[in-house]
Amino acid sequence: MDKEHNHFEEGEFLTDLGQPKKIAEIRGILRKILGEGTCQKLALALMNDRCLPEALPAKTIEEAVPQLAERYPGTPLNLLNVRGLKSGITGLKDNLLPGKKTICRILYAMKANSQAAILQTMREAGIGGFDCASSNEADTALMQGAPAEDIYYNFPKHSPQELTSVLQKGVRYVTVDTAEALAGAIKAARDLPDAENLRIAVRIAVKNPDAAMPMEEKFGIPSDENGRIREMLKTIRNSGGRPGICVHVGSQTQDPEIYRKAIETVAALAREAGGVNHINLGGGLPVDYFGVIPHPPEDFFREINEAVETHISDDVLTGDNQKILFEFGRFLIAPHVHWISPIRSMEIKDGLPYLNYAGGIHNTLNGLKVHGWPMPPADVIAPDGAKRQGKKITCVLSGESCNPADMLQAEIPSDTAVGDYLKLANAGAYTDSYGSHFNGFTLPLYALYNT
């Protein structure tokens, strides 16, 4: 560094990074040189880029464990199956609205997991865009090369400041569900050089008792308030914007029929309003964590495809550049990440095994506590890659935090030993994004492999 910006001799910048005072000094210098906003973006980029530099040669998790145990002993890791993720995106594109490919766009809901390697893989596989809920998520997508026109700001209860920030980045798709949010969007549009390109969707609510996480209580205008919805769509059109309707049936929905009901409702409301430019049918396709989902994905695709063909007619979608959007998060990424964590010690309390492992409810497994779910079935892999085959017994998984509530009941093989690895499938969604740095523990790194 030069003398004006301080005091590092050649080489000292790197060799002394481990000293807390030096790190604080470097942080202050970067803020001074780059500005606070740029430093925040840099921090955001680093937080979302925790991928190991080289892909593993392994083809299976069992092959990967010995390699990782040797290179990163005692460390929890996320394993991202790149080829599997690309194949999943291709399959979804092939099965969803095959007769309307020119107007159908499948978005990735970034809230599920915004790691850089995941977003890059999504783009390589031809994902239709990114659903973001904040200015920071928009920045994350832009930093991975996504053009602004492929970013959709679908959080309906935004602040004026957040909305302005997103629009300044070039985003032109916005969702609202209150009169205040709509007024703010229309006001912000007046300062845009291309205000006529702004698409504003009104989010409606549909009741779905079969969703693990219903959305209608927090988001959306009740679908039976036809007059209010119609007036909001009219206001958007009269302001020069392009009106749309957004709906979400709820996360982890169990019954495919709810999509048909939602699409019928959206079509009727759009028709009453004289048509809309775009329709966002949300997400909600389930991931079978516990082996209890009664319908395979094909049943959901069939209901959606048939309902769209039947109800989304020329008097529903009108104008140029029409779009039917979907925003999938969990369904797209969860199956393609496995989490592995070493068992560090074991003890018996009141006849029950307690396994102390790396991670916990403040880290990767936070989503279980948030949703009140039990621990999904987990395998145990020995350090040499062999899968433990013993009879399943009940145990307590004790996380590495100092929170006494950081415990989960689980079923493990009876031949589990210290040094083995817990392996949890379907770990790609709402693990990192719900995790924290409680007690100073960092979130797991990502290792890439192909199978």
Key traits:
alpha/beta; eight-stranded mixed β-sheet; Lyase, Ornithine Decarboxylase, Chain A, domain 1; nine-stranded parallel β-sheet; 451 residues; 19 strands; TIM Barrel; globular; 22% strand
Account of the 3D structure:
The chain is of the alpha/beta class and 451 residues long. The protein folds into two domains: 134 residues, Lyase, Ornithine Decarboxylase, Chain A, domain 1, CATH 2.40.37; 252 residues, TIM Barrel (Alpha-Beta Barrel). Strands 2, 3, 4, 5, 6, 8, 9, 11 and 12 form a nine-stranded parallel sheet that branches. Strands 1, 13, 14, 15, 16, 17, 18 and 19 form an eight-stranded mixed sheet that branches. The radius of gyration is 24 Å and the shape is globular.
